[in-house]
Amino acid sequence: MKKADITTITQNHLCFSCGACGVSCPSDSIRFEITSAGRLQPCIDYKGCINCGVCYDVCPGLDVADVVTRGYATEDLFEGHTINAYIGRTFDEKIYSNAQSGGMVTEVLTYLLQQKLISSAIVVRMDYGIKPTPVCYLAKNIDELYRSQKSIYTPIDLLSALSKLMSFEGDVALVGLPCHMQGIKSLINHASQKYTRVKYKLGLICDRALSYLASDYFSSFAHGKHKILYKDTLLSKLAFLRRES
After folding, report:
1. Which of these, 78, 100, 75, 102, lies nearest to 90 by C-alpha position?
2. With CB atoms 3.0 to 4.6 Å apart as the test, which of 12, 40, 43, 121 could cross-link to 155 if both were Cys?
3. The whole model's pTM is what?
4. How high is the pLDDT of residue 202?
5. pLDDT at residue 146 tops 50
6. pLDDT higher than threshold 60 for residue 45
7. Where are the domains of the chain?
8. Hey, which residues does 121 pair with through a beta bridge?
9. What's the burial of 87, exposed, middle or buried (CB within 10 Å: 0-12/13-18/19+)?
């Protein structure tokens, strides 16, 4: 009997592109690809699939779907459960001058590395070539942390980087969006011993992510494909994707 898999998730528009399914696949049969609609989605190589259903079981999209559609949420869906709120910034001017806002995440990670509380941090940087491309990697020193500063406005299967944990020793920190935090929580619930080295999880605020078509559109201005960006024509040129597309 064929078990439900991650294809069921993508067909029902529940995929976060977090990477939990890919890193949990025992046969390494899941790859993330950019669809014609500009979405980042997992695709199964059914020649290697062993029909275990693990990718479906660890998907955090199932839990969030219950919260949204069945009214299980007990707090604001955007803010979540808030214990306390603070405002802060780093006093390191090098970090602050390169930061998206206050540089607090980089400051915390720097402290954890310097105190040898972690050996690396799973973060994301943007590689700028013909078009901006997000890359998740393990930052093992301060310079590598600097390259991960500033926001990344495109989807990224961040949790795929967890596959590299077996190749080195030491504890790690993970920096991600709410979807990635839900994903690592689900992975720990299903295989707690495998991810015990993820000691610190730093979540970032996010209310949406651009599709790759949208990021390609904006990057085209930097490469001179559009000479002038008129305020009144931007929205008419940029067609946001509909759910069914």
Report:
1. 102
2. 40
3. 0.80
4. 95
5. yes
6. yes
7. 6-203
8. 139, 173
9. exposed
Cβ within 8 Å of residue 145, ≥6 positions away: 106, 109, 110, 113, 121, 123, 139
The reported pLDDT for the residue numbered 38 is 83
Residue 65 phi, psi dihedral angles, 5° rounding = -60, -40
CA distance 179 to 64: 10
Of residues 166, 101, 164, the one with CA closest to residue 135: 164
Contacts of 90 (CB under 8 A, 6+ apart): 96, 99, 102, 103, 104, 106, 107
Mean pLDDT, residues 177-189: 91
Burial of 131 (0-12, 13-18, 19+ CB in 10 A): middle
Question: How far is the C-alpha of 245 from the C-alpha of 243, rounded, in Å?
Answer: 6
Among residues 131, 133, 188, 132, the alpha carbon closest in space to that of 159 is found at: 188
Residues 61 and 16: beta-carbon distance below 8 Å: yes
Residue 211, classed as helix, strand or coil, is coil
Are 17 and 158 in contact by the 8 Å Cβ rule? The answer is no
The whole-number average pLDDT for the span 127-142 is 83
**What whole-number distance in Å separates Cα of residue 155 and Cα of residue 1?**
33
Cα 31 from chain centre: 15
Sequence-distant (6+) residues with CB within 8 A of 230 are none
How large a percentage of the chain has pLDDT more than 90? Answer: 42
Write out the two tokens for 135.
């890359």
